[in-house]
């Protein structure tokens, strides 16, 4: 076999042809390309180029089409006859063979996670078999892919929940910086997994329970954190109090709140706790609620009577609906909407495009399914930021239900 492992014009053309063949293995025509003679500035270079291409033809991997008449000494086009033979001629395995080898090496890692992790590996293997990168990983980056699948498998086992990124990364891969190296591709995969393709990374991390470092929970209402020798934090403090998630073991409910109201945005939270005095427990979610907020709400909802109304006030848009649905799916009982209606959006909102990605919520048992349906498929959709409304006592929501 002719040694063609030198990086020059002939090898580059044959490599390019092999890549085109592997990327489209089922097309009805063969990959082909015309030589770039402008790169061959000397007779020696042209002779070597012709020798390499004709050697590949003798091996049975390509067909050479020569020019006619006065161009008969030049190659007009090179056509692939057998991609597997071309790979052998170039001294490397085919992309499908490489992809299968990599899959076999990664499978023991992926298999430690939930079945969807193996499904992802199969999808990536199919792309590697076409000489494509998958989530910016090539078949040649086996060590990086092992890290990636170690992180995914651990996430699928719920092992990220309640941890900061560095601690989780060390636990999953024995490397504190592995998570940072793969953060963008993890967010891309998991965003699709949670039904929110393209979601911001912070939204994804919230869904898997990962926190860079836990943020305090801002609230106002009849709860407290204390020890045997005294009270550390009183939730009735003005204008509001803050409790760190690590203090929740010492949480107690001082008296039955009139309602429990969660609020998505900071400005609306601040106005609510300053302007409305009605004995409610008001909790700021900070957009998608972090793990600490969810844990706090779960403890409170378990401690108070089921008759205490639980409400949520957020934006009337795709993000606000998804936050509401997240609370429904992750708490002992779901909230009812407060100031989140189609009528209010039509009256005070701004024109917006329909968002069909809300279809799954529209078809669910969510308390916002009708609003989600309008936002997903309505002909005159409007979005309403909650800051556009003044705070109100939640009694109307309670008495209307």
TrEMBL record:
Native source species? Bradyrhizobium diazoefficiens (strain JCM 10833 / BCRC 13528 / IAM 13628 / NBRC 14792 / USDA 110)
Tell me which residues make up the DUF3322 domain: 16-190
The chain positions of domain Wadjet protein JetD C-terminal read 221-390
What is the protein name stated in its UniProt record?
A: Blr1667 protein
Q: Which domain of life is it from?
A: Bacteria
């Amino acid at each position: 076999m002719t040694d063609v492992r030198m990086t020059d014009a002939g090898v580059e053309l044959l490599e390019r042809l092999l890549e085109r063949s592997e990327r489209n293995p089922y097309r009805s025509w063969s990959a082909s390309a015309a030589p770039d003679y402008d790169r061959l500035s000397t007779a020696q270079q042209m002779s070597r180029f012709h020798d390499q291409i004709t050697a590949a033809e003798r091996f049975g991997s390509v067909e050479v089409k020569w020019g006619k008449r006065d161009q008969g000494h030049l190659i007009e086009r090179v056509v692939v006859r057998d991609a597997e033979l071309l790979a052998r001629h170039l001294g490397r395995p085919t992309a499908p063979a490489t992809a299968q080898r990599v899959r076999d090496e990664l499978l023991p890692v992926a298999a430690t996670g939930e079945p969807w992790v193996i499904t992802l590996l199969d999808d990536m293997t199919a792309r590697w078999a076409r000489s494509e990168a998958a989530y910016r990983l090539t078949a040649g980056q086996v060590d990086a892919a092992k890290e990636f699948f170690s992180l995914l498998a651990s996430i699928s086992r719920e092992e990220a929940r309640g941890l900061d990124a560095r601690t989780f990364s060390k636990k999953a891969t024995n490397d504190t910086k592995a998570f940072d190296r793969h953060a963008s591709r993890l967010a891309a995969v998991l965003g699709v997994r949670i039904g929110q393709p393209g979601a911001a990374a912070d939204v994804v991390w919230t869904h898997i329970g990962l926190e860079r470092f836990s943020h305090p929970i801002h609230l106002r209402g009849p709860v407290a954190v204390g020890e045997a020798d005294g009270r550390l934090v009183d939730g009735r403090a003005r204008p509001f109090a803050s409790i760190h998630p690590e203090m929740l073991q010492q949480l107690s409910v001082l008296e039955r709140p009139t309602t429990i109201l969660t609020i998505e945005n900071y400005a609306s939270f601040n106005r609510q706790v300053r302007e409305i005095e009605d004995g409610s427990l008001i909790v700021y979610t900070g957009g998608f609620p972090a793990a600490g907020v969810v844990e706090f709400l779960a403890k409170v909802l378990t401690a108070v009577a089921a008759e205490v109304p639980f409400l949520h006030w957020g934006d009337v848009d795709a993000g606000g609906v998804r936050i509401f649905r997240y609370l429904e799916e992750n708490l002992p009982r779901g909230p009812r909407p407060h100031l989140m209606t189609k009528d209010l959006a039509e009256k005070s909102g701004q024109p917006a495009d329909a968002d069909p990605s809300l279809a799954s919520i529209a078809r669910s048992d969510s308390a916002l399914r009708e609003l989600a349906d309008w936002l997903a498929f309505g002909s005159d959709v409007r979005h309403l930021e909650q800051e556009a409304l003044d705070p109100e006592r939640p009694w109307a929501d309670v008495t209307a239900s």
